[in-house]
Specification:
- The chain is of the alpha+beta class and 250 residues long.
- The chain has four helices and eight strands.
- It starts with 12 loop residues before the first helix and ends with a strand.
C-alpha cells in the first residue's frame, strides 16, 4: 500500500488577521468586566446626620387587671376564671368608647403545680383584662369599679394620632437642619453648592413607661369600693433623625 505524502498548507495572511482581530475582540470584551468589579471613586463626599427632638406629655394609658385562682381540678379553676373575667368584661364594656377606652382580654392560662416527686398536686390559672385609651379619667374610674380583678400593671405612652402629628413637624425640622448643615459644610470646605446623595429618615417611637402595681393595691382603697385608680402621665420623647451624605460641588 502506498501512503500519500503529508501536505502542509500555510495560513493565508487574511486568516492571520482574522484570528488576531478575534483575539483582540475577546480581550476587549473581557476588560469591562474587570473594570465593573472596581468600586467607583468617591470624591468630595461628606456624611453626617441631624436630629430633631421634642418632649410630649403622654396621652395614652394602658391598665392591666388580673384574676388568679388555685384549685385541685383544672376544669374548676378554668370555670372560676371565666366567671370572673365575664363579670369584669361586662362592667368594663359599659364604659367602653372608641379611642377613649378600648377593652380587650389579655393572657389566659392554666398550669399544673408539682410536688418534690414531680407529681401534679393542683392547678393555678390567671386571666387578664386590658383597658387602653386616651380618656384617662374614664379608664381610672372603670378600673376602680372592677372588683373581681386586681391591677397588676399601668403603662403610659403616646397615641398614634399625637405621635404621627409630632413626627411630621419634627421631620420637617430635621430635613431643614440637614440642608442647612450641608450648605455650611460646603462653604467651610471651599465649595459653593452641594448635591444630595443617599439620605435616610428614621423616627424614634417612644416605648411605654410601665409601672408595676401591687397585686392587692385595691386594699388601699377600701374606704371606697369604686375609688378611681390614681394616674399621673409623664413625658415621652419623639426623635426624628436624617442621615446620609452630600456631594460638594463648585
Amino acid at each position: 500500500m502506498t501512503l500519500s505524502p503529508l501536505s502542509i498548507r500555510p495560513i493565508h495572511p487574511l486568516s492571520r488577521r482574522a484570528t488576531l482581530a478575534l483575539a483582540v475582540a475577546v480581550l476587549g470584551a473581557a476588560s469591562p468586566l474587570v473594570q465593573a468589579d472596581q468600586a467607583p471613586e468617591r470624591r468630595n463626599v461628606v456624611s453626617f446626620s441631624t436630629s430633631a427632638t421634642q418632649e410630649i406629655t403622654q396621652d395614652l394609658l394602658v391598665v392591666t387587671l388580673q384574676a388568679q385562682r388555685d384549685g385541685s381540678v383544672a376544669a374548676e379553676v378554668q370555670a372560676d376564671l371565666k366567671k370572673q373575667l365575664d363579670a369584669a368584661l361586662s362592667e368594663a364594656r359599659k364604659a367602653a368608647q372608641p379611642e377613649g377606652m378600648e377593652v380587650r382580654t389579655g393572657a389566659f392560662s392554666i398550669q399544673p403545680r408539682y410536688n418534690n416527686q414531680g407529681r401534679i398536686t393542683g392547678w393555678q390559672g390567671r386571666a387578664q383584662l386590658v383597658l387602653q385609651g386616651t380618656d384617662m379619667s374614664r379608664i381610672a374610674q372603670t378600673a376602680g369599679r372592677i372588683n373581681e380583678l386586681n391591677i397588676i400593671q399601668v403603662g403610659y405612652g403616646l397615641s398614634r394620632k399625637v405621635r404621627e402629628h409630632n413626627e411630621a413637624e419634627l421631620t420637617a425640622q430635621a430635613i431643614a437642619s440637614f440642608r442647612g448643615k450641608a450648605q455650611d459644610m460646603a462653604k467651610a470646605f471651599g465649595f459653593n453648592h452641594y448635591a444630595l446623595g443617599e439620605v435616610a429618615i428614621q423616627s424614634g417611637e417612644p416605648g411605654f413607661e410601665m409601672r408595676p402595681q401591687l397585686a392587692m393595691m385595691k386594699s388601699a382603697m377600701a374606704d371606697s369600693a369604686a375609688a378611681p385608680l390614681p394616674v399621673e402621665p409623664g413625658k415621652g420623647v419623639v426623635t426624628v433623625t436624617v442621615s446620609g451624605h452630600v456631594i460638594l460641588t463648585p
